[in-house]
Amino acid sequence: MPPAAPTATSGEPAGAALEALRSVLDTAGFIDGTGPEAERYLHDWTGDYRGTGLAVLRPKSVEEVQALVRICAEHRVPIVPQGGNTGLVAGTIADGPPSVVVVSLERLNRIRGIDAVNFTLRADAGAVLQTLKDAAESEDMLFPLALGAQGSCQIGGNVATNAGGINVLRYGMTRDLVLGLEAVLPDGSLWQGMTGLRKDNRGYDLKQLLIGSEGTLGIVTGVELKLFPRPANVETAYLGLGSFADAMALFGMARRVCSDLLTAFEVIGSECIAFATLSNAQTRVPLAGEWPVHVLMELGCSSAIDGRALLEALLGEAFAASLLGDGTIAQSRAQARAFWAIREDLVEGQAKRGRHIRTDLSVRLSDVAPMIENARGYVLSNWPGWEPIAYGHAGDGNIHFNVMPPTGLSAGEVRERGTELLDGLYGIVHGFSGSFSAEHGVGRSRRAVYWKWLTPEQQKAAAAIKAAFDPLGIMNPGCLIPDR
Amino acid sequence: MPPAAPTATSGEPAGAALEALRSVLDTAGFIDGTGPEAERYLHDWTGDYRGTGLAVLRPKSVEEVQALVRICAEHRVPIVPQGGNTGLVAGTIADGPPSVVVVSLERLNRIRGIDAVNFTLRADAGAVLQTLKDAAESEDMLFPLALGAQGSCQIGGNVATNAGGINVLRYGMTRDLVLGLEAVLPDGSLWQGMTGLRKDNRGYDLKQLLIGSEGTLGIVTGVELKLFPRPANVETAYLGLGSFADAMALFGMARRVCSDLLTAFEVIGSECIAFATLSNAQTRVPLAGEWPVHVLMELGCSSAIDGRALLEALLGEAFAASLLGDGTIAQSRAQARAFWAIREDLVEGQAKRGRHIRTDLSVRLSDVAPMIENARGYVLSNWPGWEPIAYGHAGDGNIHFNVMPPTGLSAGEVRERGTELLDGLYGIVHGFSGSFSAEHGVGRSRRAVYWKWLTPEQQKAAAAIKAAFDPLGIMNPGCLIPDR
């Protein structure tokens, strides 16, 4: 029997707790959970999940967060911490009884400072990612985290979910970008780790536990982030290849020739282009001839390096090695944007097509091509009429292998049969020792599959960490760890 | 009162336990703790620390490690895991009663495989770092971890202590190089995480806890490591500057101009040169004139990038900005080696001078110059006759600020007064929110200062993690966490 995490038991009437919570906040800080104002905090942006909550609390300071958490601990009121609420796995949407409060960090959103010599930026957890990126750019530096939701997701949420995105290849996941962290622990105490140090070997690195813990161990309130020199010189290429295996070989060659200056290496199965076209009828693939696999590659460097020459050297070598069918290097920023639009439009097009099966798989780079082949074979052999497509951040081994249902199925049928299909795909990726969640996390929607595939040792370790930090089980219960 | 970690209580006679342990191993696997063969496992290589042990156990397989740990748990025999025993903080040298066993990983030392497409190498924990570096190089790849002890330290120890070294600047600490980890937990169960994935957002990242935990949470038995393209083109420069502040400004400029292709950025206070000369009378500084601060800089890139031109562009810009006094770019590998010899010899020279005060401090890069100035002022004002020197990995904010005692003091006097001086230096670095241990760890020798400067929240968190993983307190007791 898997060990279970502790769960809050709400024995008391909530009234006293809510009054105490309200007393900490100003008028705009407390939103009743039953009113229309609470709506946008209680369902996720895809519309797939609808949660419950007694109230939405919007603290303006770290001290207010601490006071709220202390009251919740005293009254055993479970807390759902919430950033920009842009997640895809219901990590901020409670699915239990309506006894929780949502703590939104959106008003705790100051930039605390930029240190140009240390190449760091300090900010409150509620600061919006795009705001931080703009602040870094205004000092001629780069904060490289880049993802679709960057206009509304918050850095605290990015840290709590260890967000990924387009530039992981060069700059790493959010985990790799965090030098310092400040968090309110489940008893209301403050864990102070805003050190900004690049090297610090003093004992257990607790911040590593909080990063990616999806709000189950505490509430991130502040971060100190690595900045980088802004690449003055960006080159983009769109390439046609014969296979995913060739694409992975090209990636290895690109790492070597370009000295790891690549900022993106995206693969696109040619079957995805129809979805780009569905979203944008003007879609034009910049390739002569038909190629089963496309690669969108970007390289960023200082103005002292000839990025164009570097990319040309790579493509020359790749042609000579018969890895490359055709390719174009963007001659302008506008052309580069048009290349990227294909990648973005194919995602839009899938949404336009309607409900479908989405995955976020990762495997070793050496298993990318076999995994896609295997998964394709499984769908084509066992699911007549269902249409697989594959694309993603191949440089990270992260593939979105999605499946479109046959037209004519009801939403209910898609959901029901989709669960079964997903189980099959997860089994395949598990067979490659891969992950069913490369970057989206576990949340509540993937909790069952997460727990099912942990070994007993891993279940025990996860439950022990949860119990050590949150013995009352009040921090985002139901997320990640199954309720008792 | 600080919460204490659990400690093993050795109530039973050790005889039964030792017999059971012996039965798991072959003849060469069991070394009696009282014999001469055990000596090299029971004192550290500096000769500063001498420990105790009932026996040294040398398992040859992961299963043997598990069996040994199970027996130790059953009989409450504390374990000191040991790699190459090259640490500097007595992390593998027990200082308690002689009831412990040392588990040496040295016979568990196979390379399990290299995956050229995934750019990874899998190895047993006992594999020697240099062996892994050579294996990577034989496939035209680089495993970048580089430190003085690389000929004898083991990768499991590097992981357990989150080793740093020369190339952290470009490639990160050991933590950043580990993609997969396998460890035997304190109950003998196996934590299996050899996934080799670059992106994996499934729940708590337990491997991050084990990395840097100094053997207090489990015994690392296997690792999967990131490899990199081998820089075909390496350029080295030796520079003279007016101040540490100028050196840090130059570093920022170098990051921008050279697109983060720097592999090393070492500062050397000119007062260190006397120690290089003490070690090697042939030492010649390749600078015209006297400069208070020297910088040894290295850049690595592919053959498709003109590294020499890049370095020249940087130096031109730095001269124009009056950051640079004088400088030489190595014209040959031999000349580059001569530059590096100065950096290595100045360490040797200190040892030759005799017992002295060594530190391993880190601060924000923006605090490097003020911290050195502050620490120098403290020594010169308060410690007449004591001689401060400063050098280190400035690109990481990691400075070795060492102090030579006046000649004529006895070893006992140096030790006693040195402890007081060290307290003063640690206070200064603490005032800068810095770390007294950038890369060497805590072990037993820095346990008191570690614990003293943790906040109550951090003490509680560290003790909770220890108790959750090692409730019997048998795993490297006395290391990192104070005994009860």
UniProtKB/TrEMBL annotation, chains A, B:
Signal peptide: none annotated. One of its GO terms (molecular function) is catalytic activity. Keywords: FAD, Flavoprotein. It holds the Pfam family FAD-oxidase_C. Belongs to the FAD-binding oxidoreductase/transferase type 4 family. GO terms for biological process: respiratory electron transport chain. Residues 49-230 form the FAD-binding PCMH-type domain. PANTHER family: BLL6224 PROTEIN, D-2-HYDROXYGLUTARATE DEHYDROGENASE, MITOCHONDRIAL. This is FAD-binding oxidoreductase.
